[in-house]
Amino acid sequence: MSYDVKALRAREFPWAERGESIYMDHASTGPLPARTRDAIASLGARRAEPWRLTQDDYYPVHAKARERCAQLIGATSDTIALMTNTSHGVNLSARAFEYGKGDVILSTHGEFPANIYPWMAAARARGAEFRLLPLIGDWPDEAALMRAIETDPKVKVVSISWVSFWSGHRFDIVAIGAACRARGILFFVDAIQGVGPLTLDVIAANVDILACGAQKWLVSPWGVGFTYVRKELIQKLEPAEVGWWAQASSGDYAKFLDYDPAWAADAKRFEVITLDFVGFNAMAESIGLLLELGPKEIEAHVKALGDRAVAFADSAKGVEFVTPREPSRRAGVLAFRTKDVAASSARLAAAKVCHSVRTGCIRLAPHFYNTVQELETALELLADRT
Ligand SMILES: Cc1ncc(COP(=O)(O)O)c(C=O)c1O
User: Fold this and answer.
1) Phi-psi region of 223 (alpha: psi -120 to 50; beta: other; left: phi over 0)
2) Are 360 and 226 in a shared domain?
3) Statement to judge: residues 125 and 166 lie in one domain
4) Domain holding 77: CATH number?
5) 111 CB under 6 A from ligand 1?
6) Separation of 51 CA from ligand 1 center, angstroms?
7) Is the dihedral of CA 234, 240, 241, 247 positive or negative?
8) Which of 85, 86, 161, 166, when mutated, tests ligand 1's pocket best, judged by the most ligand atoms within 8 Å of its CB?
C-alpha cells in the first residue's frame, strides 16, 4: 500500500505543495520535514535555557536515534554508532581494519573524495596499496572488482559507495559482500546516497562497516549520521579516535576519576564526543517519518520516478541518460548529459527546479514526496527545444 503523497506534502513539506521549489537535490542536502523542524524548535528552546531540559532530552534521544537507524538497515541498535557524518565511518574503517604492508585496499575510480582520502592516508601510513579500478564509460567495472576479490590474495579490504554520487550507479553489494566474506576480505560501504531511497538488509549484504550521513536522503540536519559495525567485529576493532564517551563507564558520572579504559561493549565504543542532542533528536524524527511511511513504499515511489526518467531518456533527443536503466542498478540519483549542460541547468533554475551539476552531468535527485508531475517538469527542461 502506497502512502498519500499529497497529504504527506501538505503535512511535512508545505512549501512543496505551494510550489515554492521543485526540490530535486536530495543527493546534496535534504529538506527537513515539518515534524523535524518542530522537534528542533522544541528541544532547541529547552537547550537555550538548559534548566528546562529533562533527563529524557539526553541519552534516551541517542538511544532512539540508534534504534531508528538500526531499523532502517535491518540491524540492531547495539551495532550502531552515532557519528556526525559519513567521513568518520570511512576513517574508522581505514584506521581500525586489519591490513598491512603489501596488502591491497580495493576501490574504483569515480568515488566521492570522502571515500578516497582517508584510505590514501591510511595506506601510505601502513605501506599498503590503495588500488582504484578504472571505470568503463561512466560506471565502475563491477566484473573486474569481483575478479580481483576472487583471484587476488593481496586484496584485504574492499571500499565502495553503494550508489555513485554523480552517475547514480548502484553496486550489487549483496554479491560483493558474499564474495568478500567467503575470502575473509573486509567490506566497507559508504551508503549515504543509497539509504533512504533504497531498502537494505545490512546483515544479508555481509557488510563489515557501513557509514551514512543523514543530511541528504534521510532529510536530517547537517552534522548527524551513523556508522554500522558488524556485531562480530565490534570487540575486535580498536577505536580510531579516543574520547571520554566510548568507555563502558562513561555514563556513570561517579566513575569519572576511575579512568577505566575499558571500551563500551557495543558500537558506542566508536563514538567519541558529547553528541548533539538537538541534531540527533531531529534525525530520529526524520527517520521516524521514513519508517512510518514504509521504506519499501518509499523505494517503490523513487523507483517509479526513475522509471519515468528512463522512459523520457529513451525518447528524448540530445539527452543521454548516464544512470543505469536497470532498476536494480539505480537508486534516487538520476544523471543526464545534455548538449549544453549549463543551459539546461539555467532552464531548470529559472523554473525553480533545485538540482546539481556534477562531473559534467545534470543531477536530479527526487525523493519520497516528489510527484511525477514535478519530475516531468524537470525532464522537459533538460532538452533544448529550440
Ligand atoms: C558518496 C558520498 N560520500 C560522502 C559524502 C559526504 O560525506 P560527509 O557526510 O562526511 O560530509 C557525500 C556527499 O557529500 C557523498 O556523495
Assistant:
1) left
2) no
3) yes
4) 3.40.640.10
5) no
6) 36
7) positive
8) 86
Report the atom number in ligand 1 closest to the C-alpha of 215.
9
Closest CA to 159 of 223, 86, 217: 86
287 grid coordinates: 527517520
Tell me the C-alpha distance between 268 and 77, whole Å.
10
pLDDT by 10s per residue, the chain, length 386? 699 999 999 999 999 999 999 999 999 999 999 999 999 999 999 999 999 999 999 999 999 999 999 999 999 999 999 999 999 999 999 999 999 999 999 999 999 999 999 999 999 999 999 999 999 999 999 999 999 999 999 999 999 999 999 999 999 999 999 999 999 999 999 999 999 999 999 999 999 999 999 999 999 999 999 999 999 999 999 998 998 889 999 888 899 999 999 999 999 999 999 999 999 999 999 999 999 999 999 999 999 999 999 999 999 888 999 999 999 999 999 999 999 999 999 999 999 999 999 999 999 999 999 999 999 999 999 987 66
Element spanning 123, H or E: helix 117-126
Domain containing 328 equals: 5-31+294-382
User: With a 6 A CB cut-off, is 91 part of the ligand 1 pocket?
Assistant: no
The model carries a pTM of: 0.97
